[in-house]
Amino acid sequence: MANRIPITDFSDPMLDIYARTPEVQLLRYREPKPGVFIAESPKVIARALDAGYEPISFLMEPQHVETQGKELLARCPDTPVYVAELAVLNELTGFSLTRGMLCAMNRKPLPSVEQVCKDANRIAVLENVVNPTNVGAIVRSAAALGMDAILFTSGCSNPLYRRAIRVSMGTIFQIPWTILDAKSWPGQGMEELKALGFKTAAMALCEDSLSIDDERLGAEEKLAVVLGTEGDGLAEDTIATCDYTVRIPMSHGVDSLNVAAASAVAFYAINKGKNTKFPVDNR
Fold this sequence. Notes:
Distance between the termini: 25 Å
Number of helices: 13
Strand content: 15-25%
Helix content: 25-40%
Order of helices and strands: EHHEHEHHEHEHEHEHEHEEHEHEH
Largest sheet: 7 strands, parallel
Structural class: alpha/beta
Shape: elongated
Radius of gyration: 20 Å
Strand order of the largest sheet: 8-7-6-11-9-12-10
């Protein structure tokens, strides 16, 4: 039986995580230990549990306790479950819930770059991508299109912010990732990638860029695709230290794509012909 707690007092301190704590503060909630994040919707919560993340509490509509939340709650019998009607939950959280269900979860310690890249041949590196929607979309494309891991610079929107998780459809819990130390990119970070055997390909609008479908890219045993911030793209020193500069051919006078769209094209192109299997997830 779920540990149901009807919400009768909006000021209950146990609801602070959902109602009164900005995500930046959740990130630092238990410093120096890893912080907290909010997972939204049954599918996303299930994927986080599958990846070993520990739940703190649930927040959901009463009807979901015995319906779409039943299996999740059976996996977490001792976890508090705060319940209220959807209108109350929306007022409490300040946004419209997806499928009326949230779960506060503990973050894990970040793995090292070496751990994330240990068995990887194709990785994505995101440099200062600040929009959580773009981060989530890139993560989903990376997971779907054959990438083995993702590295984020410290200037990126955190991949465990609620909107990034939601847009990724929980695939952030299905692909290895970590965040680079603020002082390590591009210098030390690039050196570490090269020491691990990776060639690096900067996505940039330069005249001497290779086409993304150039055979030389596909032939590389280990390749890191480096994508830059919205608008400005990659920093010049990042481009200068990469082995390749790559662009997507355009038509109709269009000079570039949104970074999330560009990532999907790039990930597919560099994996095409590598016997990559793309199994369909019908969950």
